[in-house]
Amino acid sequence: MGATMITVHLRYEIDPDKQAEFADYGRRWIHLVNRLGGTHHGYFLPSEGDSDEAFALTFPSLASYEQYRAAAAEDAECLDALRFATETKCIRRYERRFLSPLFE
């Protein structure tokens, strides 16, 4: 049996007045995740309904996620993106879940 496919689901509670800053943060991470071996499926930003939630889906396997985390911890661009989020306070908090898809 091959490696189990997973999706890392991130739920962000964002400042609704800082959606532009969060979008900038998201664009940075899409590039970074893809550069560091992940498969980023984009960010899903508020449109209608709740104005303070955004989501991201990344990584096809737990192994690739673990490799990414190790590389990101020392990557200057990643550290700069985290610093940007801290300085702008566009993210209030986030949750990370590991999900296995079920297909027909």
From TrEMBL:
Protein known as: NIPSNAP protein
Residue intervals of the NIPSNAP domain: 11-102
Pfam families per UniProt: NIPSNAP
